[in-house]
Amino acid sequence: MNVLQSKVVFAPAGSGKTEQLSERYIQLLRQNVPPERILTITFTDKAATEMKERILKKAAETDPKLSQLLRDNILRLRISTIHSFCFSLVRRFAYLLDIDPNPQALTDSESLWSQTKYDTLMKIAEENVDSNEYRLLLDLITTETKQNWDKLSQLFNQLFKRRIAALRVQTQNISTFEISELARQLKNHPVTKSQIENHEPLFPKNFTPENIELAYQLLERNKVIFLTQENEPRKKGFNPQEQKWAQLMTRYRWLLLNARAQYQFANQFWLFREIFLKTYEEVKRELGQVDYDDMELLALKLISQHDEWQNILYAFDECTDHILVDEFQDTSFLQWEIIDKLTEEWRAGEGAKTAKGITPTIFIVGDDKQSIYLFRGANVEVFTRAAERLENWLGKEKFNRTTLKNNYRSLPAIIHFNNTLFSRLMAPGTEQPAWCTRYAPFVCQRTRNGPGRVEIVLHPPEEKINIPESRQIDARIVARRIRALIDNGYQIYERQSDGSENPRPCRYQDIAILIRNRTQLDAIEKALRDYSIPFLVVGGTGFYQEAEIRYLAALTSFLIDPADDIALYITLRSPLFSIKEKDLLVISNGQYPAKNFPPTLWERVSVFATDNHELTTAVQILNTALSRVNYEPLHLIVDRILTQTRAWEKFWEPQRAANVKKFLQIIQNMELEGINLYRIKKFLEDSEKDEARADVTISGMDVVQIMTVHAAKGLQFPIVFHPGLNEEILARNSYKEDLIIDETINEQGIVEAQAYYLPDRDVRKNHPVFQTVLEKQIEEEKRVFYVACTRACDALFLTGVWQMSTKTDGKEKTKLDWLKKHLGLNFDGKEFKFENANIENVYCINATTLPEPVLPVPEVKEGPKPVVKKGPISPITLPQVRSVTRYTPHDHSRHHPEAIVLGDVFHRLFEMFSTSRLAPEDPALKQEIVRLLRQNSIPQDRLDKLTRVVTTQIKRITSSPLWEIIMPQPDSFAELPLMYQDGETLWNCRIDRLIVLPNEVRVYDYKTFPIKETEIPTLTQEYYELQLKHYAAAARSMFPDKKVNVYLVFTSALRIVPVSTEP
Amino acid sequence: MRQLFLAPFSCPNATEQLLRAVLKTGVLPQEIFYFTPSPRKLRATQVLFAQIYGKSAFVPPAFFTLRQFALKLNSEYCDRCPFPDELKPLLIRQLFLRKKKKVTIGYAQVVARFIEDLKRHITPEEQNTLPERLKKMDVFIGHEKVLQRLLDAHQIMNDYNSALNKSGWIDSEDILSQAPRLLEKVPTIKVLIFDSFVAPNRLEMELITALIDKAEHTFALGYGTSDPNPGYDLARIFNDFILSQPGFTLHPLTFEDNKETVPTIWRFPTAEDEVTGICRQLRIQAEGSGLKNTYVVFPRLNEYAPLVNRIFRHYEIPFTIYPESPLSSSPVIIAVLELLNALNTDYERVSTTAAFSSPFFPGLLRLSEDNNAIDPHTGLNSRNRAARMLNMVSRRAGIIKGRENWHNIAERIIRAETLDESEPEARFLREIQQRVRQALGITEKILEPADTLGSQARRLKQFLETVDYGTNIMPDDPVGSEMVEDRKKLYDILDTIVEFEAEFGGSKETRTDFVKIINQLLSLSPKTSELDQQGVVVLGMEETLGITADNLYFAGLTENALPGAYQPDPLIPEKIRKQLGLPDIDWHRDWQRFHFHRTLGSCLNQPFLSFPETHDGNPVLSTPFLPDIKPSLDIAEPCHLTENTVIYSEIEHQLYLGKMSNVTFEQLTHSVDFSAEPEAQEIISDRFGPDSYISVTALERYRRCPFIFYLEDVLGLEITPEPEYVVDAQQWGILLHNIFKLIYSGATIPSLKEIESNAERLLNRVLKDAGLPRFWAEVTRRVFKNILPRFIEQEKELRKEGFFPSKTEYVLKGAIAPNIKVKGRIDRIDSSDTAVRILDYKTGADLISKQDVIKYRTYLQLPLYAHLLTEQAEFGQKNVDNIGFYHIRSAEINWLAKRETTVADLIQAAIPNAAEIVEAIRMGKFIAQPSKKNNCRNCDFQFTCGYKTGASEDDNGG
Ligand code: SF4
Asked: What is the pTM of this model?
């Protein structure tokens, strides 16, 4: 491999694409390229980790030195998704974008958007009467006979979702050429004159927005003349000339409608982009947040508008010399622009790098046939364009384009089937646009083992069945076929670590069912259950829709907001409490004291639950929980309730138990983030939110895996089922797509965008751009199909229900249609067969001829009975150090912070007096007091006052009996630190004053707060008792042969109080 | 005597050996000064010392970290007051502002770190000459902006130093740096100990040198061995430094390592499984050797703390954990932040609810007549009861935000739901309104939108005091006492801001900035809690420095955590950091590598090592430090709970029992059916029996979904959805509806001309009543004007056919079958000489057809009314000619009786349908069963009501 040559590798499924990339990486390192100079971009975080793992492993196995180098530089490896790459750039150069260097990633941009949208609307409405936006807004939401904010708002939402593309849209002049031409023609058309009275205003000379509106209104009133009910040109009762005219009129109407929509859209778009979106950006900046979605945009902005970042990276740190991109087919235009920008400088063939003798390279791997993320903005066109551009820039000797052909994954039957089918299905003419997929056949490399198998298993046509019914039939085919494979021990080949393959009968875990969309799931799950086939849905979404999560969400909501009747109702009826419905009905009918009207369900339940055991238990549990809310993390409270109510017994199924744990974690994380409880509740109630179900690890479980084709990308399975051959290719909502933002790369490599808003069905249906959108989606579906079929290693099963024909317009609507058209799949009333393809080991099977499998009798497993060893472990105390503090918590709650500071100052002064470091009459006293106060952060303006307080107090003390204690004297200590051991605890004490007499030790503790005489008993006997006990104990251990007496010295009351501390 | 002991990581008793060597010299404890880098190690040594010294009480050595010691010197001998670290960014921001440059608080923090770095690692002379030095570096050629930014930061550093100086403050770096000088005032030290230092910075080294000079004897302990383990790289800094001092001799410590084998590393599917696995292992250990001196250590404790807290409890394992959660996650603090947020967002509903109803502001929502009496039914006083209702009431009032809306919270509901003022409900709502107004009053009086930070802080504090912030927290409750602490910290922060401003000045700032700054300060001051240690100790890796464990669980050993991500310095490029001798990316790695190896070596028995294989479903690698121990380390298979045959926790037990019972969840969902419960039926018949008039709309509600009907109409539960950020299109519908009603409300029927000329007046009247803001009034006006011509056209049509409006808002009651009485209201009745037509105004877009009556059986109203009408004396003679919907928006009428279908057919279909429903209600059948799937779309009960809706059709596989 020449690592100094840039390269584009077209690497179809199973051709060892990741291997290519990691090999390249290692090669670069071997050429002494420092790791921080290689930027590797993957499509998912998962892929990034896997890539890193692969590289580390490769190095560890082959080159210990390289391995060490990699591990030492692990922080410098730059293998990430483009998104993380962008995020780190943005964070690092935040100051250039005028955002906080520690930006918070805004995860819920939708809700900030809807808030901002609302605020902006209200603001426009309130403030700017004469403003452009006021006028426009008013016009836009009142054009019809209803207030149209809703509609506008929906359009804004759509635009918001595609805001990144929307930002590129060039506003263009609306062309009225065709419409003017047609208007002229029709105005003078004889039929016009005969059919429509007063037709002049219908065909204005100038197509201004006003004229268009007027013409449109008039035309609508007359449309019955030339249109049928279905809005098709009228034929009935018309002669040929009139028919022609009706066609022209229909076209004219279409153009009018379209022009009208375009004018409106121009205004709507302006309002969105210039007012609403801008406000959103401002709000976001103000909050110091960065939108997750426009991280890439920010990064691009950064690298294209600020030269500085590049300089910094270039000159200092992570100068990128080599870029490796994986799964390039899934790159969006924006991502491509970023990569493009990154390579711009050195691509030019000059610059510092070349001067330094470095040959920068770019290495791109991907498979255009596996581009299946159109709906997320991935664009297959990018791939081809990128390859072309690179070739142009770098020239032949610096650039190489390879197409890998070898397939190491699948057995021959599968390869031949795929080669035959897809080379026909993906065979656009040369004139076809770049987004059409082109197939290049595989060469099979797994030829040493069996031939493999492909089955098309179909149910014969049924009269009038609906979609759910056909799905059920299909699902049963899948289940029966799996049952048979397992029961008959279908043989697959297991790859060994040395690369060889061993045959063995297949197990459940070897089988994957790849579905196109989740609507198929219900039927499949049911069929598998019916045939006793264990399975797991991998990467399923709909976490919050799971029943157990709904119950927990209700419980949580109730704990947060006990006035929420519904939450409580669901909680009580949930398997946690299983309260009988009738009991709740009875309660709802009881009379509640009117004073507290309106009673919540919770109030009713707590009042009326008295003689019902289940209810009282529930009330008790919930009541205790409620009293802890705000004092204890909510997730712990919920967790406790789960155990108390023995909920785990009901949530035992692995997926459910995992979901419950995930739920607790979600709540826990929100709490840690400091999100208030009501917001958590609001979050839980939002039904729109989507979240993946908890991961349940499959490794070690013998189950059939069900997942979407998208989720299966990058994976392979010995046996693959792909049901739904008869499902419609285009999701029904494809036809509803009314906002189209069409992005393309022009000759200069610049991405351009056009926006079309086609709310009117008639306009949309015949709009060329919309047609293209549909065609692109069909292309995408071909690729999804390709991905599904190429996942299989040993056997592939495609299933469905035969339909005679679904074609109405000559276009294929289902995958079945594709098979019919390209392989001549046909049904003769008994059997299915290919009429124009003959592929070995590919079978067409009539599902009704399959024998019904005998269901295994469920065996009762008498596993070993577990030993139960739960229960608390007795507490263990550990050796530890604790301090006896000068102030007790009571002091802190009873006294002002300033009083506490003064206390510190007094203690310090007394210590100084006792140790003769300072005398009360010393002129330096005042200065010392000020110093001490300042040390304790007393502000300047309080200094004088407090200094006076202290000096006065000192005066009083020196002339009182207290002075006898404080004054310097032999055998005495001030602030004496003592340590003493009490059981496992080592106590750290600091005794204010300790005087050793011949037979006695006196321990004094100063209390400087102002007190009342009456408080003395409480203070000595309660507040300070513990503290003094420690002092006494310490002194006793220190002076075991002397008597220890303890005194409290109240310095403001000038009182010395003996305290009894007998142990 | 000057000695340096060198201990390998795995030496279990290095500190003990050190202390014994010291005590051997015959020194008294109080003559010893002991220094170590971490407070935790300090405490551990205290315990150890007491054990070795063996007396039950004594005057202890002076135990210090260098920082504590420097602080003490400062407080004894220095005039300047310590400047809190967390205020540095604030001061720096202020200094930038003086230069007319507004930087974010985050950037100020970056500069603060820059200053700290320079002060810690570079001598003052070098600091002064830094600009010259930087300017000379050619790496900056062509990158002048980068250079300039550094020079600016340097300039700010000078400003910062003089600002502190001028106002008598001193920062922690300067406290350390002045310490050697102040040390002169301290008497000679007899014995000095330095234990477990690793890589002291310049300031620390200077202090250590000064201390050594001051001491008669010095004993130091560092980590080191001849072993090439890269973990020792960093520790060499301390050792080399000590050996560069005169007179030190080297004493390698020896001991026998009885861990011959290399440990196994366990991988677990997820972190949750990992902690569970550890718990199980701990239980096993507890049965055997017990849990004495057992540590569970994580490189990133914060990520694991919540899991540990939860799962350790499940396994009933006693433990102590030291999590450092930010102050801003404390409920007492959240309440304040939400309050500020509410003010910032014009009283956004959720924030406002959270703030006003917070239990920590007992002074909000309080009325002067409130006493603290507890209501026996709810166990709450009246303030708290109202607080509890606030969320639901504000939802019911449809508040999204806006002071005015809150102010009229009760009015809004009473108006929208047309409640009777005399009802207790209305009274209750008014009481809540009064409380809300009280809260609004206090809030507004005190908190101004824009002011200096200092005054905002002062005001906030004043506000908090007014509302008795947190005074009801029980300080004796362990959580309560923490909250009191948190509250105090907040007060401290507010005080410091005030003080700060008095010292350094301030300018007007928005509330958003204020909140940001408060947040920043909160996040910088961690919650600390001094807990009793008991059971297993759970610690962060760096916290374990200097600790020896009997048993160690070292978990979370992933690549993400070890070495944790390095955030490059945005100000000083890495290369320059290296050149200047500042800690850089390699230092960061070595630091963690050191701790990894040290922790690993610190236990007596074989440690339990583990990591999770995935995080959030994504694969995770193990730390690259593991192969340091041995290149091909044994990584054990992931653990599976299912394989266990011993049950150690209640949850495990419950899961096991559940599995054995094999009851699947589907079998647990229920539907409401009382058909076999006569007692329940009796209750139902109180309201739906033969004597009651049942409203026809209720019957339709039953058809929509019997279960929802049951909840609302039978149980009487309140279903109050969250108000959304939308302008309610329904509202315009109601307005238009009102105008239409008014048109025919007079005694005589207006002519079409009159309608046209009156329209404007009626419109104005309705608009005035509705009190719409100008813009929305204009919208309504335009929309109405668009409709009017069509309406008149339509009326013309009707009249042409001989029908004239005769009644509006007509209420009627009657029996539709023996035993079944219903009631309802008709919007409009038009009559001709012989016949009547019933019209229902519709504002929505949905069309109802005869099929809804006959086939789907979801619609009942007009047919039933038609039937009842024929029984009314007033209309007895006339037959019902047709029934239909008057769509206000299009002014089109959609007749129900069309083509072959007659009104009689419709009635024929509706009556048995209604009877059927009534019977089902009386039987108590309320099974969830929507008439249309669409009804389930936004239903709260989706997936719990038992009805399986299935996934939505329009999803994409991705
Ligand atoms: S989800 Fe559907 S069936 Fe269930 S309660 Fe709601 S409306 Fe009724």
From this structure: 0.89
